[in-house]
Automatic annotation (TrEMBL):
Coiled coil: none
Protein name as catalogued: SelT/SelW/SelH family protein
Organism from which the protein derives: Rhizobium rhizophilum
Keywords on record: Redox-active center
Keyword DNA-binding: no
Region (Disordered): 62-100
A Pfam cross-reference name: Rdx
Length: 100
């Protein structure tokens, strides 16, 4: 069975490459053995979309901004392995905003 593919389409005019790369790094670190690919796709026009295979799981305009790493990891986990425990990411929000 093929492993899931994540694509992050980001606006080059808005300088969102570093944000996109950081999110890709977070996903690859957490799901290193579960993902087949994380692709960064440059675009223009204020776009920021994250797709799991062909399903849109985050869209900046629709979802009100950018996802945090906790939120993004939970969305990916829920789609590819709902029983997986993400450790501190799934714990109480007492450290919200810190290294998620």
């Amino acid at each position: 069975m093929d492993k899931p593919r994540i694509s992050i389409t980001y606006c080059t005019q808005c300088n969102w490459l570093l944000r996109s790369g950081w999110m890709a790094q977070e996903l690859l670190h957490t799901f290193s053995d579960d993902l087949g690919e994380v692709a960064l796709i440059p675009a223009t026009g204020g776009i920021f979309e994250i797709r799991l295979n062909d399903e849109l799981i985050w869209e900046r305009k629709r979802d009100g901004g950018f996802p945090g790493p906790k939120e993004l990891k939970q969305k990916v986990r829920d789609a590819i392995d709902p029983e997986r425990d993400l450790g501190h990411v799934d714990r109480a929000n007492r450290n919200e905003g810190l290294d998620s």
